[in-house]
Design a protein that fits this description.
This protein is α/β, with parallel strands linked by helices. It has helices spanning about 5-10, 30-45, 80-95, 115-125, 140-160, 185-190, 195-200, 200-210, 240, and strands at about 20-25, 50-55, 100-105, 130-135, 160-165, 175-180, 225-230. The protein has a single domain (about 20-235), classed as LmbE-like (Rossmann fold).
Length: about 250
């Protein structure tokens, strides 16, 4: 039966401080972390949190016809184009103030076939973190969804806090972070990804999404990033949360 859920139970009407003292951010491709939560991780770093970003792929399939994509190295999927994207990521990390990052270089659009290996890689370090950020389970890109799948499996095993960020699909958030003060920093970090801005107008799209996320936060908030905080016991409720049928924390 349809339930007329009140607005305040659908989306937050207040902003929260970014969560985490020791934070791991999973980015399926170089740029996802900045598009989805770049301002938040910059704020976390500024408030004294330890932030590590792990790039699962080097995004080698973003531009198959690019001249650098045909120059490959030891692994057929690692190309000069891959290294171009990694260089852009390093520049973005510098803008965001992040000095701990790592490139795992799994095949772009191929994470499903490597999910066990990635789980094992991350299991070796996950105990050092209290919060993990990653794309949501309803993203368009399959690598994004597989990353969410791996993150939820890790959460069941190790019990950290998990936050989904949005890149290609807006979701029903239960956490909003006011990023007004650092929106220009996020903008500058996104500009570092010149190759990807040639592919799509991600800069305006993401900043427009961040503008939209201020809808319930008042006029003083100009930009906000949205998240779904998922606790381990609530994972099974995700489909009903996303379809506006139920709430977490009941």
């Amino acid at each position: 039966m349809y339930e007329a859920i009140e607005e305040g139970r659908i989306v937050p009407f207040y902003a929260e401080k970014p969560a985490g003292k020791t934070v791991l951010v999973l980015s399926p491709h170089p740029d996802d972390e900045t598009l989805g939560c770049g301002a938040t991780i910059n704020m976390l770093k500024s408030q004294g949190s330890e932030v590590t970003v792990i790039f699962l792929t080097s995004g080698d399939k973003a531009e198959p016809k690019h001249e650098l994509s045909s120059i490959t190295y030891d692994d057929s999927h690692v190309s000069a184009y891959s290294y171009l994207r990694e260089k852009e990521a390093i520049m973005a990390m510098k803008v965001l103030g992040i000095d701990k990052y790592r490139f795992l270089r799994y095949p772009d659009r191929g994470l499903l076939g490597h999910k066990e290996a990635i789980f094992d890689d991350l299991s070796l370090i996950i105990g050092a973190f209290d919060v993990l950020y990653c794309p949501s389970c309803i993203e368009l890109n399959p690598d994004h969804r597989v990353t969410a799948m791996i993150a939820m499996k890790l959460q069941k095993e190790y019990g950290f806090s998990l936050f989904f960020y949005e890149v290609t699909v807006p979701f029903r958030p239960n956490c909003l972070v006011d990023i007004t003060a650092v929106a220009k920093t996020k903008w500058k970090a996104m500009k570092a990804y010149k190759s990807q801005l040639r592919v799509g107008n991600y800069l305006d799209i993401v900043m427009s999404l961040n503008r939209f996320r201020t809808l319930t936060l008042g006029k003083s908030c100009k930009y906000a990033e949205a998240f779904i905080e998922v606790r381990e016991k609530e994972q099974e409720m995700l489909p009903e949360w996303l379809s506006y049928k139920k709430e977490f924390n009941q």
